[in-house]
Design brief:
Blueprint lengths: L4 H9 L3 H6 L2 E6 L2 E7 L13 H17 L6 E12 L7 E11 L3 E9 L5 E13 L3
Length: 138
Amino acid sequence: MKKDLREFEEELMKNNNFRNLLGIQIEDISEGFAVLSLPIRDDLKQAGNMVHGGVLSVLIDSVIGTAVRTVLNTNEYSVTAEMNINYFRPAIKGKIIAEGKVLNRGKLLIVGVADIKDEEGRLLATGRATFAVKRKNG
């Protein structure tokens, strides 16, 4: 396991232009677990004045991916192989918080789940993703 997970993830995310564009922030991270947040801005909303569902899917993918990275060996990386999401309520204002955790770490696949809530703790969306484990070259 990496010594300082938060420092490792923050350094890695400096080069993740898409996450930086959206404004995704790390709130908490530990082995097999992560919490990310996203301040709601008007440019993330669709015509109905709510955060676009694609933004929520990125947040689900990102928080599970962050939790997955905490259980990888230094010679491994992962890629999303499959993901599904259920949407329950619209995200309209404030900040949304995504909590992700690893359910199962196999040799080739890692499965994780995540919930997105608003600042009042109401469930906005939930998702599950499978990540394929790859070996780094060299």
